[in-house]
Amino acid sequence: MKRQDPAAQLASAPRDVRASMLAAETLAPGAAAVVGRFFAAVAAHGESIDAPSRRSFDAAAASEPTLATLLRALAAHAPRVCLAGGREARAVWYARRRQADPPRRRGPAPLPAAPPEAWPVEWARLYPALRAAPIQESSRRRCVNSVSRIVALLPMDLDLDWSRFTACSLFEALLEAGLHPITAGNYLDGLICLGRHARLDKNALKGLREMRTVAQVRAARIDKKKVARLADLEERGGFMAIAAVIGRLQTEAAAQPANTAAAERLRQTAAVLAVVINAFGRTGDVARWRLGTDLVREPWWAWRLGWTQGKTVKDQNVGELWPEVGEVLDALILGGRPTRFAGLRYSALVGRNWLTLTDDARASRLPSQLVKEAIDVPLHDLRTLLADFLRRVGPARAADLIKAMLATAAFSRESPTAPAARATLRRSNGAGYGRQSQSMASPRSSGTGRAATPGTQTLAHA
User: Fold this and answer.
1) Distance (Å, rounded) from C-alpha 197 to C-alpha 281?
2) What is the mean pLDDT of the chain?
3) Whose C-alpha in 3, 325, 385, 404 is 20 to 30 A from the C-alpha of 343?
């Protein structure tokens, strides 16, 4: 079969795309043909090239490799084309691939019938009783893992009876291995669990229980790690640094092809950071929020937030979020599409998870993981940062200051509110960020100050 001329295949492509592809030294096999089919489908559907829908990608590419060729060619030669619809098309192919694979077992494998080989005989003989204990499989596994960790750190000459001396020796060995007292106490709790379900005498476990209490007392005397983490964040600029990170994440996401997982993760991280400094939520709650139920976008572009807390089962009504936060949320649901499609995208996504934009939510720890990757502190630490900030500057000024930081530092483009925001920061004379407060230097700085909600001019602190 005679090979068709690339120029003829690209007849439906815009002039600049056609010129770029014809001038390329090498083209992937089939690239010209699939790009030509794509632009013909876009024209047939009456779509704009800066926001083609998934159906145009489906019409041009009848297989996953062909779709991959199309996406690479468009990213290289047609930067004006938004590839968000291509990401949706690729997700369908991924789902088909998973359906074709044999079903995988969910969760960890059940515990084996025999105890771990490294366990000493004194503990291994208690293992069958643990396996038969009326507790959840996860609790059994946690107990086994704790005991196995103790075994790995056991002194070679230790006599493994159930005396107080043995308990004390085990605790000291765990501390000498560099473990935090709380971690050491948790490992001892695994050994207590093993003995309790083996129905050992209560006096046999008294020494281990005493050492567990000692671990808690020692841990209370040590400054929490989050104090050092938050002090470091304050030195880097506090909320101003967070606002700058949000701006950097948005800039990096805009520079990536819209179909990439990297761009999606950058937008997710920026959205989590922006929302939680306006209205803090626990990571499990944040991961479960739904568009149209918890996060609602009004026709006039405002976003509102309210949800039922998973831990307390209480309603948390934040009200309208700051306009700067709404811009970040718009960028998340647009996924690289032009701003004019924000309303249509929201309507199409109502009922879906706000982070994944699908029916399924990710693991509850995802928001905290995203925050940790971006600013080196977990999400929960921002609760303390917000409380400390509220105490220093007061609820009324805190909201205005953080909004000003977002408006001046968070966006690569000039925000309409930026001039007023810069004036607010000048009046504040830098108060409230970029320095460490006395309360942040104390492990007792984990207060739970609250601001009034709802309202756009306040900080919501769940």
Assistant:
1) 38
2) 82
3) 404
Residues 6+ apart with CB under 8 A from 308: 314, 315, 316
Residue with tokens 């930081």: 405
Q: Do 96 and 127 touch, CB atoms closer than 8 A? A: no
Rounded to 10 deg, the angle between the 15-23 and 31-45 helix axes is 170
What is the maximal distance between C-alpha atoms in the chain?
89
Q: Which of 330, 280, 271 is nearest to 460 (CA)?
A: 280
- For 86, residues 6+ apart whose C-beta sits below 8 A from its C-beta are 54, 57, 67, 70, 71, 74, 258, 259
Helix (H, G, I), strand (E, B) or coil at 390: helix
Q: Taking residues 293-306, what's their average pLDDT?
A: 93
CA distance 188 to 296: 47
Q: Are 50 and 18 in contact (CB under 8 A)?
A: no
Q: Read off the pLDDT of residues 420-432 as tens digits, 9 standing for 90 and up.
A: 444 544 454 444 4
Evaluate whether 158 touches 201 at the Cβ level (below 8 Å): no
- At 319-366, the pLDDT tens digits run 999 888 999 999 999 999 999 999 999 999 999 999 999 998 888 889
Q: Within 13 Å and on the Cβ side, how many CA atoms surround 378? A: 10
User: The dihedral of CA 10, 12, 14, 15: what is its sign?
Assistant: positive
Architecture category of domain 225-461 in CATH: Orthogonal Bundle (1.10)
* DSSP code per residue over 274-315: HHHHHEE--HHHHHH-BBTTTEEE-TTS-EEEEEE-TTT--E
Q: How far apart are CA 281 and CA 285, in angstroms?
A: 6
Q: Where are the domains of the chain?
A: 6-100, 121-221, 225-461
Is the pLDDT score of 111 beyond 50? yes
- Report helix angle 31-45 to 64-77, nearest 10: 80
The mean pLDDT of 56-77, rounded to a whole number, is: 94
Virtual torsion, Cα 347, 351, 356, 360, nearest 10 deg: -150
